[in-house]
Amino acid sequence: MPELPEVEVLARHLNRQLAGRQVRQVRVLIPKLVRPHRTEELNQCLNGLSFQAVGRRAKFLLFHLTAGNGATVTALGHLGMTGRMFLQPEEAPMPKHAAVALQLDRNVMVFEDPRRFGRFNLELSPLNTLGPEPWDQAFTADELFQRLQRSRQPIKVKLLDQQLVAGVGNIYACEILFRAGISPRLAASGLQRKQVERLHQSLRNVLSEAIDTGLKASLDFAGGTDGLFYFGNNSGTTTSSERFLVYGRRNQPCFQCGTPVVQYQQAGRSTYDCPTCQAEGKLKL
Hints:
26% of the residues lie in helices and 20% in strands. The chain is of the alpha+beta class and 285 residues long.
């Protein structure tokens, strides 16, 4: 599932392509993905509006549009597990799994989602319960420490709580904990302040580096290539095994100490860690 870095990269990419362009028609091909709205309602709300900017909040894409009279509308997009959003020429055939198509001047913005877990609508209530962004000024190591003190969940599971910090998912939770030298099994409330300080710094560093890496990838999904961009660009020059230090590397040697990376389940999700570098109580310098 695309996480904060991938959504941030896509938001910047779409912002460059969409800013100032007008929606001329909305076509809904999979009504389920625009609920609670009906096709006619979505077309009525967006038709004639112009994109002002595309932004991100947690794992959500925010499409800010304006009308000629200055009225504003925000559409919310979520990629689910397999969703993609891209522009294609208006004469190009519609992709097999296209869910929503926004007709622009010479292009069509397509939202396709083979597994149909994503969404594109005007319902902003999912944003109401989100915690701080990783780089928010108020999200300090001390604030994180205080929040973790109230939870006995394993720290890996707690990092997936979008009310704790917005945007972290399973892939980057594994990477963040490895870089911080913290076992995913440790209770959140059991982390020492020094460990939380490392966790806070690792969280910001891992996500920032992932964004920088993603900005080098191709997002031209209309070119007929497959593969989700967080597993490398379309030319295949960057792979997940090169990018990730533990995620997806079961039984492969740890890049730092050579111990085989282990995989196990936590709250129904796969966790990867190095049992040596992330041994409980071990401080990573």
